[in-house]
Design brief:
With about 400 residues, this protein is an alpha/beta fold. Helices cover about 30% and strands about 25% of the residues. The model has no long low-confidence stretch (mean pLDDT about 90).
Length: about 400
């Protein structure tokens, strides 16, 4: 269990299970109340093996309270960085989830699932997470569905309460997203064998555009390129682009000045429609690639820069890629362009390219200086006000 490596965890839950006992034994939960904050484990009931009940009995680490006390919003809001992790049986493409189907609901009901998820989002530094398998245990059915399998089922987490959703194929933040953005995001973390079916159903239900595409089959997200970079006094996330970044890339485009847009596209572009934006966020991660820099200080993540490489014509045995980038004006002159250029050179090498090329307007001094800083192996050719900059990266 990943949490066994953590320290000073506190558990506030409806239920104490064997997993909580494992955390306590591993040392992730402090053995006694610290700083007068009360017992490190508070709950209202126990479910599990005999080991759970032996652990709870007479243990000062555990304080059992009534369910109304445990799910009190005031109690949850008083805890910093409160992370609510709830399960689900199914989640539909709008972000609604359920925790039981058919007769199962008669046995355990919804408990405090919705209260925990909703309130955690508003605690200082908190978040609500819904975690579920991408398929049924036998793999026959997707747990991410266009509509709930049982139409009589009760919705536990509503569209307005959903925050993070996690499967074994990734994590998405649905907070503040439109239905189209939610549907696409959930499809990307569904089991691969169900993604095309879900996309077809989303189109049938008019949740997404008719020309919406997914990354090519087999284009696995390269998580190894994720990391943090220090820009000014902030740590920002660097990661490969996703098809779900379409709206954020559009926002970045509209934040740029008229001159910045011209420098990026070498023509005057006043709008970035769905089809154009979709082309910018759809890469195969093997011949085309893009990295974004993301500022996640708010509830909704903001992309402040993006850099692309895409294949150009080959020169004999040398593979050539073209580089281009966009940086939000409020983040310019802080080294982001140079940082992305260096990172994309490394990515280009990984993808087997020998030469990187960029087409730079003659007065785009920032981009030209970024290339000049790299020194050896660079050539420049001026033609009709545009420098063709070539850089050997092998």
């Amino acid at each position: 269990m990943f949490l066994k490596e953590k320290k000073d965890l506190r558990i506030h839950s409806e239920i104490v299970t064997d997993s909580v006992v494992d955390l306590a034994v591993s040392g992730a939960i402090p053995p006694s109340p610290a700083g007068g904050r009360g017992a490190p484990i508070t709950a209202s009931l126990c479910i599990g093996s005999e080991r759970v009940f032996r652990f709870v009995g007479g243990n000062s680490m555990v304080e059992m309270k009534s369910l109304s006390d445990i799910i009190s919003p005031a109690t949850i809001l008083s805890r910093e960085k409160f992370t609510a992790v709830n399960g689900a049986i199914e989640i539909d493409l709008t972000g609604q989830s359920c925790v039981g189907m058919g007769d199962q609901m008669g046995y355990f009901g919804a408990l405090g699932h919705a209260v925990f998820n909703r309130t955690a989002m508003f605690s200082p530094g908190g978040k609500g997470i819904i975690a579920l398998r991408s398929t049924s245990r036998d793999g026959r059915f997707s747990r991410i569905v266009p509509e709930f399998t049982d139409r009589k089922i009760g919705i536990v987490t509503t569209q307005s309460d959903v925050n993070y959703v996690v499967t074994e194929y990734g994590c998405v933040n649905l907070f503040g997203k439109s239905i189209r953005e939610r549907a696409l995001a959930l499809i990307t973390i569904a089991h691969p064998k169900f993604r095309q079916w879900l996309l077809d159903e989303a189109k049938r239900m008019n949740y997404v555009y008719e020309d919406q595409v997914l990354p090519p089959e087999g284009a696995d997200y390269p998580g190894s390129y994720e990391g943090l970079c220090r820009i000014g006094d902030k740590d920002l996330l660097v990661r490969p682009i996703k098809v779900t970044d379409e709206r954020a890339v559009q926002n970045l485009f509209y934040a740029m000045s008229r001159d910045d847009r011209f420098h990026r596209f070498l023509m005057h572009v006043s709008s970035l429609h769905h089809k154009q934006a979709q082309d910018l966020v759809t890469v195969d991660y093997t011949s085309s690639m893009a990295l974004v820099i993301q500022n996640g200080q708010g509830r909704q993540d903001e992309i402040v820069a993006v850099a692309h490489i895409a294949p150009e014509e080959s020169r004999g045995t040398k593979k050539v890629c073209e580089f281009a980038a966009m940086v939000d004006p409020s983040w310019q002159n802080q080294g982001i362009g140079s940082f992305l250029l260096s990172r994309m050179i490394a990515v280009g090498r990984d993808l087997g390219y020998s030469l990187m090329r960029a087409y730079v307007w003659e007065d785009n001094m920032q981009m030209l200086r970024a290339f000049e800083k790299l020194g050896c192996g660079m050539t420049q050719e001026l033609d009709c006000h545009v420098y063709r900059v070539s850089l050997a990266i092998e």
